[in-house]
Amino acid sequence: MELYNLKDDSQIVNFETAVRTGLGNKQGLFFPQKFSPIEDQATLLNLETKERNKVILSKIIGKDLSSSTLEKIIDATFRFPAKLAQVTNNEYCLELFHGPTLAFKDFGANFMANCLQSFSNDQPITILTATSGDTGAAVAHAFHRLPNIRVVILFPHGKISELQQKMFTTLGDNIHTVAIEGDFDACQALVKQSFDDLAFVKNVGLNSANSINISRLLAQVCYYFDAFVQLPEEQRKKVVVCVPSGNFGNLCAGIIAKTLGLPIKRFIAATNLNDTVPRFLASGEWTPKQTIATISNAMDVSNPNNWPRIQYLIDSGQFDSRNLTGCAVDERQTEKSMHLLQAADYLSEPHAAVAYHGLHQSLKPDETGIFLGTAHPAKFKSTVDQVLDIDIKLPEPLAKCAQLTDLSVKMPADFERLKDYILEACEES
Ligand SMILES: *Cc1c(COP(=O)(O)O)cnc(C)c1O
């Protein structure tokens, strides 16, 4: 597999380098020049999930992973299902929250962790990442107890919910968690400073588990096929998929699935009030605004970092932009959508509700709609309880970690202190 730097096409790397380095020169994203369709879709769709994922991923990755390594990675990644739940006659939710941290990010984080593990060659790797919530949990669980890899997660002290925090601070072993006295930006600045210290990067084998890593997208391509397969035959003709979007990795994966031949008719990109992309699709102008806090907070992104990949698929003629529309959903509409789902006897949370709104208002009677359920409702318990006037029970993984001890250490936002801490953690393991 050859990956080009979208900002500098003289930089071409293989899959391993793209996964190890994350970003290219000039902060450019790595991406293949062309995806070739998988010819026999009928046979592909008839395969059992892991077999199908292997065909899809080996088509994309090619010889960069041996057949047996890819098989091992797939076995270790797809240990939980993507379930299609019927909501109304022609509307379905693709539930992507049956993994260990109850969010779709488990798919990408697990696949990336297992790819990196297979590349480590017994050289220790240190993953350093900043989180404001969901990503930290998915990364921590994905890398927990993987040999030769240690993980350091920075989060803003006192700024995330206790339950969210406990999903990654209670694991221990190779997962080190640091509460930084500052906000999320201060955490990100420390990560950036660490990567600017090249001697340090080399010394500890520093790597970020950032969402722009190509490996995170590839695992996500597979579940679009999974969704399609779970539809009754007679509803597969005009399938519309609505994706609740923040950084636009998930939508990008869906569009890749279509370029590989999956017969999805069109996509809807649903955002909350952070609506840079819907405005761009309507006007052709890219004008990010100040980020606004919403109840679908995992999508509070005003300058989505995966958009250049989608733009490339459009510009290179691999995806027809007429098959993509945007929909910006405000807070009142999000709540109304949660109520509408509740009335259909389907319990949902704000992110999926944003997508349901986008789908429901544009779906034609002869189309079949799928919206993506990116998180378990209990993950956003306080909002869901309040909006729907209910008291959701915590599912087992959440209830379990709420009982455990928080192992994080507190630290001022000081690079030298962080560096000492990481070096010490490296000596231990
Ligand atoms: C990360 C996240 C999103 C946004 O996904 P992108 O791939 O960044 O567009 C949506 N919902 C939830 C619950 C998330 O955690």
TrEMBL record:
Residues 94-366 form the Tryptophan synthase beta chain-like PALP domain. Its cofactor is pyridoxal 5'-phosphate. Pfam families: PALP. Signal peptide: none annotated. The gene is thrC. This is Threonine synthase. One of its GO terms (molecular function) is pyridoxal phosphate binding. Its EC number is 4.2.3.1. The modification N6-(pyridoxal phosphate)lysine is found at K105. Belongs to the threonine synthase family. NCBIfam families: thrC. Keywords: Amino-acid biosynthesis, Lyase, Pyridoxal phosphate, Threonine biosynthesis. It catalyses: O-phospho-L-homoserine + H2O = L-threonine + phosphate.
